[in-house]
Specification:
homodimer; 253 residues; alpha/beta; Rossmann fold; five-stranded parallel β-sheet; globular
Chain lengths: 253, 253
């Protein structure tokens, strides 16, 4: 083990030799709510994961089946959906992943009829925004944070109009500096996008998943590269951490 | 919801309308041990998942990288390994999946030097046996349960000789009747293979993962097809359930 990892062990309050229990990052990032969230999934309810490459995670797109491993790819959505299908098995949930790599929020809007409304979801989880910032930053896109917020608001209004009872989950876009693609210069400008997403979550009273705060806690346990080599696309560890946080915040499991 | 699922809801003690908590299948299948298992993973310890198609789960085989999503495929090994890399992040674990579809125990032996011993694992988890039975049953293989047990014993002896401190996990092969490939006529003959694996686990004092008992409990919550459409290859739900049982029995997490 190198010195840097030793420092993490020390910081996490773990003596390797002592074989102690490792503290849970999710518990540290999100202290237990005062009231336990009740279980809430109706019979054969449709759950939809939407977003960009982080949600896509290499999913097979020729069939786009629900409850199907290859159609889910290898990211947080696969792990979270697998947990839903296990934990709520008696309710026969129908879970889709329709994330597409490279998407910005306006591209979700372009395919929202087919990839959201037609599926009649009871629960829609959206993780979008990192490309709205990243592609603007590298000159591939001329959108602004104001456009991101306006497009995102319209997407939610459209969804609420078509599906009045839909429950929404808005996930915070995130980035981990000190990695192959992300440095400290991302932090401040990305914050504007994160705050826009947070405002929309409050405005529409959605569930909010603060992934940036989660990873801010995670990097006290292991280097940023352990969670996402390029700072944007989570590793296996990062995907599991995201799924655990999602499940805790949405279902209390 | 059809009547059959309603029956499962009733049997699981869950009133859908009441939105109650769903009981945990893993907790029901494995009552809490008297003493909490201590955490046990050393710094940069190599963990290896070995087996057949259930472990393989479509993994990408050109690079066979550790801690890499595509190299892990989309089964229980991906979920369990992701959880290990998350929970024990400060210890920088190195986790491999080297399951290969169709393998019987003698085929593990053929590639054990490259796909186990050379990796110098501290922990090896093996799930093998369903093809030793299935391929014999359908006439593609002339092995017997005696050969399964003898080959498996030799594999463990070889492993213990080369890696004296290795911790072994033996997973029970399993099948779910009432599915597209498995009917009740599998139960008794498969039991002989399951008992052989159990004997070896006792003989070598390995950790034992009773997947058959786990799925026997799971089918009280949802139909067998929910957990494995063909009765052999787990669904997303079945993969998550296996990973949860594995993690609880191996690490107490």
């Amino acid at each position: 083990m190198n010195n840097s990892r030793r420092a993490f062990l020390g910081r996490a309050g773990v003596a390797a030799a002592a074989m102690a229990m490792v503290p849970s990052i999710v518990d540290a990032a999100f202290p237990a709510p005062k009231k336990k969230k009740p279980f809430a999934l109706s019979e054969q309810e449709v759950v939809l994961f939407q977003g960009d490459s982080i949600t896509d995670a290499g999913r097979e797109k020729s069939k786009e089946l629900p409850n199907n491993g290859p159609s889910f790819g290898g990211g947080y959505a696969f792990i979270a959906a697998s947990a839903i299908l296990d934990h709520f098995s008696a309710f026969d949930p129908v879970v889709y992943n329709r994330g597409i790599s490279g998407n910005k929020v306006y591209q979700l809007a372009d395919r929202w009829q087919k990839d959201c409304l037609d599926l009649k979801p009871g629960l829609v989880s959206i993780l979008i925004g990192i490309n709205d910032y990243w592609h603007m930053r590298n000159g591939r896109y001329d959108g602004t944070v104001e456009k991101y917020e306006a497009d995102y608001r319209q997407l939610i209004l459209t969804t609420r109009e078509a599906l009045p009872h839909v429950r929404l989950v808005i996930c915070q876009p995130f980035a981990l500096p000190g990695t192959t693609a992300v440095d400290e210069s991302w932090v401040q400008p990305l914050k504007a996008y994160q705050e826009a997403a947070r405002r929309l979550s409050r405005e529409f009273k959605t569930i909010w998943i603060p992934f940036q705060e989660l990873f801010d806690e995670a990097i006290r346990h292991a280097p940023a590269s352990h969670w996402a080599a390029d700072g944007v696309h989570p590793s296996m560890a990062g995907s599991h951490l995201m799924a655990a946080a999602w499940l805790k915040n949405v279902f209390g499991i």
